[in-house]
Specification:
heterodimer, A: 241 residues, mainly alpha, B: 6-stranded mixed beta sheet, 9 helices, 25% strand, globular
Chain lengths: 241, 248
């Protein structure tokens, strides 16, 4: 039994330096995840800002007959279409469309994957942040206004710090989902962690070790993220009691 | 303006909600003089909070005008935030900023809105804390304060903007009974200094003692106004008699 395990290990990881394939795969997975996360947060913040300022200010802007109302209305509509399309279609399909249609002329599949996963994640991040803003008591906005803050000042000094604290768990959940979702990158020929595990399996005809190794690496990544989340949450909570 | 002493004039103010069946405010006209303390009383749903919140444009009136220091604030061209700086507002639920210390709650608006010198703002805040007997709570967070302490902080936070008028929206309604007194004391001292105040309240004792004038509202209308003596000793409308019988 023990000798069979040893042989299996030798075959899957040591022979031909196959463990290096997992390392390369892990690097690709991390590259896609980190860039997609940054893109997703950027899009998410922007979309949430547009959506919630429209909801909070539309009546006042309409009443004062401001032209900016129509600008905001238009951007709000764009955001809603974006959210509907992204959340209404599977990630893999979006990835394939990005690779084979939108960027059909591009050979940089890693870049396409970063873009596609970032665009996808942005929709979920946007709704998490918007939910966080909506959950802030209306009295906070009123108190800000009554002190003479304009909307952006109220958001920046009062609302955003509270939102960050409130959305952190949901946001980290989205990051965890994102890390694991990149495992479909193999669909467009990227050799990410999952793909590499599968490649080893197809060469050694031994599934157990490479696939469990891949699963174990994802697990460690996610546990790391969870630990980071715990630390951040504890640090933010200390501020208020 | 006919009368230089009038600081707020409300003319034919109406507020309907979307279905047009409820008239939160139904043709309200009232003047408030500089330095005057008025208390607005009435049953819940009578529109007294809506009237007060309209003065600060937290509610948008459907029709009518509000002149504050001669400026029509209901005019769409008026900058609501500019106007709000001159009016301090105290809420039933305090609405302190939980992410800031007491001191920061007080200093942020003068610093960021009025662009005042942080040093000067800080020393003003500390002396106001002294005044409401909370000098040692400057670095506390709102969650560490009692209700009465929170409301006293909310009052001095509003005072930090050096407002011309202070609006109080049921400032003691969310407090435990034993904490009502400490908040009313601060308001009394403010009134004694000559601050113009509009107070929506259920504290009849306070209204009687401090108000120059009492306004009784019901169903979106002002039914009766008068001195505390007139209102409490000599109520005219049956609705007010009925209300007083229930609350006194």
């Amino acid at each position: 039994m023990w000798e069979k395990w040893q042989a299996d290990f030798q075959l899957n990881f040591i022979d031909n330096d196959r463990w290096l394939m997992l390392v390369r795969g892990l690097i690709a997975t991390l590259q896609i995840t980190v860039v997609a996360l940054l893109i997703g947060v950027a899009i998410g913040v922007l979309v949430a800002a547009i959506r919630s300022s429209y909801d909070k200010n539309k009546d006042e802007m309409k009443r004062r007959g401001q032209k900016s109302y129509y600008v905001l209305w238009f951007f709000n509509l764009l955001c809603r279409i974006y959210l509907t399309v992204i959340r209404g279609t599977p990630t893999v399909v979006q990835l394939l469309i990005a690779y084979f249609i939108i960027f059909a002329s591009s050979t940089n599949s890693l870049g396409v994957a970063m873009f596609a996963f970032g665009l996808n994640s942005g929709a979920y991040v946007a709704e998490i942040i918007r939910g966080g803003i909506m959950s802030i008591d209306e009295g906070q906005f009123e108190a800000g206004s009554s002190l003479g803050f304009h909307y952006v000042q109220t958001m920046w000094y009062v609302v955003v710090p509270q939102v960050i604290k409130n959305v952190l768990p949901a946001l980290f959940n989205e990051f965890i989902v994102l890390i694991k979702e990149t495992s479909v990158a193999g669909y467009i020929g990227i050799e990410d962690l999952t793909k590499m595990g599968d490649l080893i399996r197809s060469r050694t005809f031994s599934a157990f070790m490479p696939l469990l190794a891949v699963a174990g690496i994802y697990l460690v990544l996610v546990m790391g993220l969870t630990a980071l989340d715990d630390r951040l949450e504890r640090r933010l909570r200390k501020n208020e009691r | 303006m006919k009368d230089d002493n009038v600081i707020i004039r409300v003319e034919h103010l109406k507020k309907y909600y979307s279905d047009h069946t409820i008239h939160a405010l139904d043709d309200v006209t009232i003047e408030i003089d500089k330095g005057e303390v008025i208390c607005i009383i009435g049953p819940s749903g009578s529109g007294k909070s809506t009237l007060l919140r309209s003065l600060n444009l937290l509610e948008m009136p459907t029709a009518g005008h509000i002149f504050v220091e001669g400026v029509d604030i209901t005019d769409p061209k008026t900058d609501a935030n500019l106007h709000r700086r001159k009016m301090g507002m105290v809420f039933q639920h305090f609405n302190l900023f939980p992410n800031m210390t007491v001191l920061k709650n007080m200093t942020i608006a003068p610093e960021k809105v009025l662009k005042e010198n942080p040093q000067e703002v800080r020393s003003r805040a500390l002396s106001l804390l002294e005044r409401v007997n909370l000098p040692d709570r400057a670095d506390a967070y709102p969650s560490q304060l009692s209700g009465g302490q929170k409301q006293r902080i909310a009052i001095v936070r509003a005072l930090m903007m050096r407002p011309d008028i202070m609006l109080f929206d049921e400032p003691t309604s969310a407090l435990d009974p034993e904490m009502v007194g400490e908040v009313l004391d601060v308001m009394k001292s403010l009134a004694a200094e000559g601050m113009t105040m509009a107070v929506v309240t259920h504290e009849m004792g306070f209204a009687r003692e401090v108000a120059d004038r009492i306004v009784f509202m019901d169903a979106g209308k002002i039914l009766e106004t008068g001195s505390p003596d007139e209102i409490f000793e000599n109520p005219k409308s049956p609705r007010l008699k009925d209300f007083l019988a229930k609350v006194l």
